[in-house]
From TrEMBL, chain A:
<feature type="region of interest" description="Disordered">
    <location>
        <begin position="97"/>
        <end position="125"/>
    </location>
</feature>
<feature type="compositionally biased region" description="Basic and acidic residues">
    <location>
        <begin position="97"/>
        <end position="113"/>
    </location>
</feature>
<dbReference type="Pfam" id="PF00741">
    <property type="entry name" value="Gas_vesicle"/>
</dbReference>
<dbReference type="InterPro" id="IPR018493">
    <property type="entry name" value="GvpA-like_CS"/>
</dbReference>
<protein>
    <submittedName>
        <fullName>Gas vesicle protein</fullName>
    </submittedName>
</protein>
<feature type="compositionally biased region" description="Basic residues">
    <location>
        <begin position="114"/>
        <end position="125"/>
    </location>
</feature>
<comment type="similarity">
    <text>Belongs to the gas vesicle GvpA family.</text>
</comment>
<keyword id="KW-0304">Gas vesicle</keyword>
<dbReference type="InterPro" id="IPR050530">
    <property type="entry name" value="GvpA"/>
</dbReference>
TrEMBL record, chain B:
<protein>
    <submittedName>
        <fullName>GvpL/GvpF family gas vesicle protein</fullName>
    </submittedName>
</protein>
<comment type="similarity">
    <text>Belongs to the gas vesicle GvpF/GvpL family.</text>
</comment>
<dbReference type="InterPro" id="IPR009430">
    <property type="entry name" value="GvpL/GvpF"/>
</dbReference>
<keyword id="KW-0304">Gas vesicle</keyword>
<feature type="region of interest" description="Disordered">
    <location>
        <begin position="149"/>
        <end position="183"/>
    </location>
</feature>
<dbReference type="Pfam" id="PF06386">
    <property type="entry name" value="GvpL_GvpF"/>
</dbReference>
Length: 125, 293
């Protein structure tokens, strides 16, 4: 199964538009596992990595002009509104899911606190 | 060995270990041959299947050193590396999905080893099964609606551009525009702006109509964020960026609906772009009435 643009052969398959399609899916979509795994080298748990990764990728994308987060404000406001509402709803659900996942797990309270401690740290620039 | 979050220089001796990178979760029956030859996220180690419970994960051993948090951040701050990682991730998922129902995981889902991965995956098996059932025999199509490229009537510059502007021009609007070229210019600007606004309104309404029409064929629809027009200069502003989950057997019906929208005279001002079929990235999480939470 591969992505292909059916109607606009003019847009190059490896061009930036296509990369944006891929990035918005592989960075922002997919099924999130409420895992508790840290990378050995740095004592950071998965969620933290993903958060930071996401931010840095977005920044990278912006620098490269792949900026689906912002568009011309004159028109984008309305075009975006529904998407952003949906997005917020989904993020709320995801947070609830992750929190529920953490509670369900057989982790000790200490390790939970430990992880969230890191998440908070990660958000502080 | 304990390393702190900030400012720790990478300790070379701890970088030896492999991490398990998880690309996706598949129902049993994913063909390992489909994964052979994919380079994935690391050269030299195979993309393989890791069974857990009644399912399998598509995984790869990657050097932990290259996937440490700081290193990853650095690598992915490089546009070429970001693109390579994203495409490699997507390529593995697409290959797996060719042979079995596949749930994509986001980029960089990493575990310290197979056992850690297996434990985390097994804990979510029920959720995976529910979502797999929901996406079985369904694919995602991406639809974008662009404002057409009709050029706005750009107002001609005033004849006497050097004439100093006077404030409070509002009350002098009644003055005949023939004698006041500056005002004629402003009126043309205003007219162009009104026209543009009308076109935008019409474009957004058309995008909504497209969305409504396609949701009738789709099992589910989701609006994604619009891409910056600078990304795709040959198109106009993106009025809709949406993804639809569609039964595989209804693909022709979807294409028919799209053709009909394209031909419809009331949508003459917009352009539709279709991408897909995609693995249902946008439909494996959230808004899911089936998956028990």
């Amino acid at each position: 199964m591969t992505e292909r643009t059916i109607t606009h052969p003019a847009s190059q398959p490896s061009g930036p538009a296509n990369l944006a399609d891929i990035l918005e899916r592989v960075l922002d979509k997919g099924i999130v596992i409420a895992g508790d795994i840290k990378i050995d080298l740095l004592d950071i748990e998965l969620l933290t990595i993903r958060l930071r990764l996401f931010v840095s990728s977005v920044e990278t994308a912006k620098k490269a002009g792949i900026d689906w987060w912002e568009t011309d404000p004159a028109l984008s406001t309305r075009a975006h509104r529904d998407a952003v509402d949906e997005e917020n709803q989904r993020l709320r659900e995801r947070v609830a899911e992750l929190e529920a996942g953490h509670e369900d797990r057989d982790d000790t309270a200490e390790s939970r606190n430990h992880r969230w401690h890191h998440v908070k740290e990660a958000r502080r620039p | 060995m304990k390393h702190t979050d900030s400012g720790s220089a990478a300790a070379p001796e701890s970088g030896q270990a492999d991490a398990t990178y998880v690309f996706a979760v598949c129902g049993r029956g994913c063909d390992p041959a489909a994964l052979a030859g994919l380079s994935g996220q690391a050269a030299g180690t195979p993309v393989r299947l890791l069974p857990f419970g009644s399912l399998e994960a598509v995984v790869q051993d990657v050097p932990a050193r290259a996937f440490g948090e700081e290193t990853l951040r650095e690598r992915l701050s490089d546009r070429a590396e970001l693109e390579q990682c994203a495409r490699a991730h997507h390529a593995v998922i697409a290959a797996a999905a060719d042979t079995a129902p596949t749930l994509p995981l986001p980029l960089a889902t990493l575990y310290r080893g197979d056992e850690r991965a297996r434990a985390a995956l097994r804990a979510d098996e029920g959720r995976f099964l529910a979502v797999l059932e929901r996406i079985a025999d369904r694919v995602e199509w991406g639809i974008k609606v662009y404002a057409g490229r009709r050029r706005p009537s750009t107002p001609a510059p005033p004849h006497q551009a050097s004439r100093p502007r006077t404030p409070g021009g509002r009350e002098s609007r009644a003055v005949g525009s023939a004698s006041r070229p500056g005002h004629a210019y402003l009126e043309r600007v205003r007219g162009a702006r009104d026209e543009r606004e009308q076109r935008q309104e019409a474009g957004l309404a058309a995008a909504d109509a497209v969305d409504r029409a396609l949701r009738k064929v789709a099992v589910a629809g989701r609006r994604l964020r619009s891409h910056d027009p600078a990304l795709n200069p040959e198109h106009g502003v993106q009025l809709l960026n949406a993804a639809y989950l569609v039964d595989q057997e209804r693909a022709a019906e979807l294409m028919g609906a799209i053709e009909q929208l394209r031909r419809s005279p009331e949508h003459r001002g917009i352009e539709l772009e279709v991408t897909g079929p995609w693995v249902p990235y946008s439909f494996v999480e959230g808004g899911d009435p089936v998956a028990g939470r």
